[in-house]
Amino acid sequence: MPRQRTFDTDEALEAVLRVFWSKGYEGTSYSDLVAATGVERPALYSAFGNKEAMFLRALERYASNYGNYVWEALREPTSRRVATRVLEGAAELTTRYASNTGCLGINGALAASDDAEPARRALIEWRAAGEEALRQRFEQAKKEGDLPKDADPATLAAFLLAVSHGIAVQAKAGFSQDKLLQVARQAVNTWPGA
Length: 194
Fold this sequence. Notes:
The chain is mainly alpha-helical.
């Protein structure tokens, strides 16, 4: 008869997420995960699978509980408001927690060994999905006349994410939220039609 779990898997997954967010995929060891969750290694395996599976579950949780500001921004009435919400959201999230600065999607696996390739690939796909959603939203804005006829929605989406990712890197390096919000405002001031 299988043993019953004696820990809250939701709380454990949140702890796993915070470790990956802080240390990245390769920087996180099983000892780190055990220490953060208070759950022994066999029970972690049983609940979540191997380290890669835990990382993918943590990424899903991050996307739905923290990175969801991007999807909410897509509902803004103008492309400029979309850009503002994305960049302000990035500045706010990447500096919200002193122990988890930056972005899991950027910190997770930028430089990684071959063993971390699945995690790196998952992050590339996750970021690409966000970029595609922004491109489609800007295509809509262009059709509605919210963007000039010569605006390139794909370039605008890439620009927005390049600035957002830069904000995440600077947050990890210790920039303050106020400074990053100033960067966000500067970028939005260059928005077409602004």
